[in-house]
Design brief:
The protein has 288 residues and is mainly α. It contains 14 helices and 2 strands. A hairpin with a 4-residue loop joins β1 and β2. α13 runs antiparallel to α14. It is globular and about 75 Å long.
């Protein structure tokens, strides 16, 4: 049992890390809030004074604000649906005894370690290019006209690229959870005459509910700030401008730090709303 002296010593040793972590989070947040109430134009006069709620009203009344929210939620929701469903199928496949199982698992997980910028460049130039891309050659082989993916199906293209990046993560988490399932339960259900679909629905899927909740929560945190894939492929055109990309345009392209900071506050609010919603889902899953 820990004594009062040992607890005090533990708090003292943890204090530097806690202070550093709080500073790492609170200083940027405080600066964002500060600039969001000021008119700060670095290349056009610098700090021009306090503006009140003007930056917030200008940002939310922009014609690009609500479409960016819509694009963000569509990308996040679609990627989550694709990665969870395909991750389940891949986890089920990789859980079976097959030849070269270790190599197959490494190949499936490998895309997760590719940088988002590199991944987007590969998809843009090697797969989706309407002249020399892989998909263009497949279309031509069947006598069809190649598709200009990034202009004809811009959101779908972004979703495809991001899903390819995050599918290995979902597969790895779900496969790990699946391998912790008690095999005796599955064997007993099989001996009782339960079909493979029934065993999956009543035994495997409930066992994976916590892992699925964790995948959804972690992926959502990162997907809400998706940027590199859009920057490399469409540059926010054709309806692919997310809230993060809109903030980037306001800060760097328009050189309006105050307006971009107000957008950053809106992004924090959106992320917290989504996180609270998902935490409730995760909490209910863990209570089962």
């Amino acid at each position: 049992m820990a004594t009062a002296h040992s607890r005090s010593a533990a708090r003292l040793m943890m204090a530097p890390a806690v202070v550093l972590l709080l500073g790492w989070m609170l200083v940027p947040l405080a600066m964002t809030l500060w600039f969001s109430f000021r008119k700060y134009l670095p290349l056009r006069g610098g700090d021009l004074g306090f503006t009140g709620w003007e930056n917030y009203s200008r940002f939310i009344s922009s014609s690009s604000f609500w479409p960016s929210i819509q694009a963000t939620l569509i990308i996040v929701g679609s990627v989550l649906a694709i990665t969870v469903l395909l991750g389940l199928l891949l986890a089920l496949l990789l859980d079976q005894p097959i030849w070269g199982q270790g190599i197959v698992r490494i190949l499936v997980i490998a895309p997760f370690f590719v940088m988002p910028t590199v991944s987007a460049l590969v998809w843009k130039n090697m797969f989706m290019d309407p002249v020399n891309g892989f998909f263009a050659h497949v279309w031509k082989a069947f006598g069809a006209e190649p598709v200009v993916w990034l202009s004809d199906f811009p959101l779908g293209s972004i979703i495809m690229i991001v899903s390819w990046q995050w599918l290995p993560f979902a597969t790895l988490i779900l496969l790990t959870a699946m391998q912790s399932l008690d095999r005796e339960q599955l064997d007993a259900a099989e001996m009782d005459g339960a079909s493979p679909l029934a065993r999956f629905w009543y035994l495997v899927l409930p066992h994976l509910s916590r892992a699925i909740s964790v995948v959804i929560l972690i992926q959502t945190i990162f997907l809400l700030s998706i940027f590199a894939e859009i920057f490399v492929t469409t540059a926010g055109a054709f309806g692919t401008k997310t809230l993060t990309y809109l903030i980037y345009q306001r800060v760097l392209e328009s050189q309006n730090v105050g307006l971009g900071s107000a957008g950053g506050v809106y992004a924090i609010i959106l992320a917290n709303i989504v996180a609270l919603f998902l935490m409730r889902i995760v909490g209910k899953s863990l209570e089962r």
